[in-house]
Amino acid sequence: MLQTRHTGHLDTRFIRHLWGLTRIYWASAEAPKGLALLALCVAGELSLVFANVRLAWANSHVFNAVQDKQWPEFLRAIEVFLAVALGVVLISTFRIYLRNILQIRWRENLTQYFVGRWMGPYAYGHAEMHHRDTDNPDQRISLDIQSYVASALGLSLTLLAAVATLVSFAGMLWTLSGTWPLRVGAHELWIPGLMMWVAIIYAVVSMYLTQRVGRSLIGINFDRLRFEADFRYALVRFRDHIEPVALARGQMVEQRCALNRFHSVITNWWDLIIKQRNLTLLTSGIGQANGIVPLLVAAPAFFAGRMTLGGVTQTGIAYGQVSGALSWFVDAYQEIAAWRASIERLATLKEKLDETQAEIERGDGVCVESVDDSALHLVHLGLTQPDGAVLAADLNGAVAGGERVAVLGPPGVIKTTLFRAIAGIWPFGSGRVELPKTARPLFLPRQPYLPMGTLRDAVSYPAAADSFTDDAIRVALNDVGLSRLATRLDDVEPWEQQLSDDEQQRLVFARTVLHQPDWIVMDDATAALDDANEQRVYAMLSQQLPKTSVVTITNRPSVARYHQRSLELGPDADGHVVLRSPASEKPAPVL
Length: 591
Prior knowledge:
Mean pLDDT: 82
Low-confidence stretches: 1-8, 584-591
CATH architecture of the largest domain: Up-down Bundle
Radius of gyration: 35 Å
Shape: elongated
Number of domains: 2
Structural class: alpha/beta
CATH class of the largest domain: Mainly Alpha
Strand content: 5-15%
CATH topology of the largest domain: ABC transporter transmembrane region fold
Largest sheet: 6 strands, mixed
């Protein structure tokens, strides 16, 4: 049973979300340029309305000349009509061109904002705390922003045009339909502005029916985006993990997972197309019936000789424009539904990003401070899960500048959580981590990260690819036993799939030597290496970075021999995890 996450009601929540998203661009430094473009777009819409008024007038003259059989008048009317029509074409073209320029500028600004927030310093905390509330942030940033901006401009400008059209043609329609009566049987009813009232009543009934039939589309569109993104993520995840899946013979499991997600897409899609079918039947019927209304109402007056053919034509055009303006909501309903879903998804992402930042900046969790000291200190550091479950209650310890220390602990989450807390990405808990103000730390997780691009990009990360010379990169690769890659610096490959786990870890140590950090904190970053290569990289660090402090957090006691001393993560008498020196520790030889 599919669960809709959002009901689609238009309420104060929608207004708040719309305002919160809109002000990101219109309160930014780019706003003055955007306002200039918006002014041109508004001018284009108003100019098109004025041109359509002149086009209706020119049409009237053409048909009056036809009715009167006046050839010279007909030619002059055709000349005016062609000139106005050319103006309509030019205005229509350039108003869309200007709208597209504003749209891409707005989208660029909004994308930069969300990318900066999502990929910023609080990214890990957000992923841990709110990943269930903001599924598929990549799709929200790539597709929902595009949909939101395009519809925000399109709907607002077409609404403006509808209002201007209503104002411009309402007077014309009122005047044209005030000179003839409405015939009902043998009776004639004189109703001032008859066609205007017909258009208003028709539009009100149409809007009511459209809202009743199509109101569920907002929630359906919200879920459609989520289900599509979930299905696509399953396919991408399989692509990125083909080898382990194939080795485990897990293809059928992955197929079932992907197809189950696709089933949600199909179920949602059937719901969508049925609702769209019903709404399209209604709106198409309304549109077709509306086209004949002015002719039915005006025809008796024409046959009675109270209207000219040009007058009937002009009345039809004016009624069509007024009715179209009043029916803006009906015509735009499906786009409004999709737009509403995009606003909800983007606003929810923004709210959760704001919550994450506020929670972390309150400072009541783990605090990482820069101090005037050459040592790293853990001061009453308590670590918890995001749900508050305690992992460690009171960790205290210090690593002097230039010292190499192994932190040994049992397999499980505590080691990696301590690593994340020292790196400043784990806010859950209490106490503080003190780092030297001048520290240039490098944090090496167990699973290396290799960015997309060339091998040079991978070795240089996170610095720019041109930060190191080719000779320096080749020497670093040779030092870790990857000399075979030295000729492939400009090859673009999925390197995390091309290289084995141990090669990826060795590449990261080549990267480490290039960056020359003065602090290295590792979470079992040599776990995939054999004894010979592990000894090799630690010897390289000792020789090439002799003054660099090294902290290795691991569950392998054998790693301690590459360090000057070791500490243990283990329970105290009360069962709380603490940091202490081993009961029998012998100084390790310095490499």
